[in-house]
Design goal:
5 helices, 50% helix, rod-shaped, mainly alpha
Length: 90
């Protein structure tokens, strides 16, 4: 038994979360009705569900790739003394 609620309700909660991982505890309680009891984070954590969010990644478009390639081609034939004046960050 997970947390402080009955195992049959725990199973229903876990099925609900597997079906829709972004569901809130309020929505779970509304779906289960009065039999829902106490839906705690500890119950969900014990079952392996955590409230983590993925990182936001920048959306690269085709024009970004073309601009990068155009910049690289424009600077392809630069002399070594040109590059000695460039500030390099790592």
């Amino acid at each position: 038994m997970l947390g402080d609620i009955r195992s049959d309700i725990t199973g229903r909660i876990l099925r609900e979360v597997k079906k829709n991982p972004r569901i809130t505890t309020k929505a779970i309680l509304e779906n289960l009705g009065p039999a829902g009891g106490n839906v705690s984070r500890q119950t969900l954590h014990t079952a392996g569900f955590h409230g983590r969010r993925p990182r936001r990644m920048p959306l690269l478009q085709i024009r970004h790739t073309k601009a990068c390639l155009a910049f690289a081609n424009a600077h392809l034939d630069k002399e070594e003394d040109f590059w000695s004046s460039v500030l390099w960050l790592s």
